[in-house]
What does this fold into?
Amino acid sequence: MENTYSDKESIANVPTSLTTCDMLGAWKVRLGIGRMNYTVNPGLYSVGNPHRESPVLVSANYKLTFDILRKNLADLDCWLLILDTKGVNVWCAAGKGTFGTDELVHRIDSVGLSKVVNHRNLILPQLGAPGINAHEITARTGFSVTYGPVRADDIQAYIAEGYNATREMRRVKFTFTDRLVLTPMELVPAVKMSLPIMGVMLITNQFAKRPFGKSDIAAYAGAILTGSVITPLLLPYIPGKAFAWKGLVTGLMGTICILGASKGFKKENRLMSAGQLLLFPAFSSFLALNFTGATTYTSPSGVKKEMKRALPLIIGAGAVGAAIVLGSHFLGKGKK
Amino acid sequence: MAMTVKKQPSDRQHRYLKNVTTLTFDSEKCTGCGLCETVCPHSVFELNEGKLYLTNKDACIECGACALNCPTKALFVNPGTGCASAFIFGWLTDDEPACDCSGGGFC
It folds into this structure.
């Protein structure tokens, strides 16, 4: 049963300050713990002491989104209409269509918004636009759609400017900090993926003439680091445009450094090092390619284009490199 | 209430592959309403004296916001997400590309 809000008292009021628990929750989802169930209930909420003429802001039911939004609404009186985006942030949900025209129409109706406010305006986050047809919303509900700024921390300035977003507020950025908070979610799956590989190394060590040692693990960890942390962080400074290329550049540099530090270029180690030089930069390149989805500036056509070129090379180099590395360990070429 | 305009930390401009976007524009149908310019997160469009220009077409990420919000269907784009793992997932499962994105910062 959905609630329609005929009297103001039945609408939950949300605070604009976050508790320690909220902040811990944010850290947890950044690390990928329980992030698929981090939700708030869809529906209508009040912030401050709103009245019938107060603005209505629309957002998603991902709790991280909800918290960032309310934190930025201090001293404002407004309504929050939270759509059911299945716990996904506005931009991704708009792309999937869950932050969409039908859901907004349904939510306006199910909360009885036209009985709560006198005006007929909705303020939507600009990044909700890929899922919303503004003209259709007006035709179906009588509410007109205004697109607000991209970032929640610009909302106060946007309202103070008479609901005007500057060109700066309309642009998506991808700052160092933006990239930094995303790297744990790149690192965690890469480490998880490594567990079976570590298993293969342990088993190999039972039979191999030359067991895997610290320097091999260092080179491997280096590839994970260059692909899923260093490439994202230094993204605009690494030459080239394709992500696979950027990951290859950092991966090559990382592998060369580690091989150099661990006598990898000595004559007896050359075959194994050649294998590592194929395998690890390819791995780094693949991890960097996977970062495309976390960025704010890649197009599907662009990603497809670079995947078509890079994936066969990554798979080829990775397979040949892995064969050489395993072979040189089994046959015991080289000694460190 | 006193407003302080927050300064964004400066960051180098990101650039991705050129000449790949599926975005097309039919100037005959355009009414110059400017909603595409409003919703575009990468300032691809510029409205000048009622006429629309695609001044920054290579920055297009094909999110589809402009085309969906265009009242006269003057814009076309094949929308999607630029996410490699989503494509790989799609190919492996023979399904639509899907990613489990939950970034959150954008709302």
Summary: The first strand of chain B starts at residue 24 and ends at 25. Helices of chain B lie at 35-39, 65-69, 84-93. DSSP finds three helices and four strands in chain B.
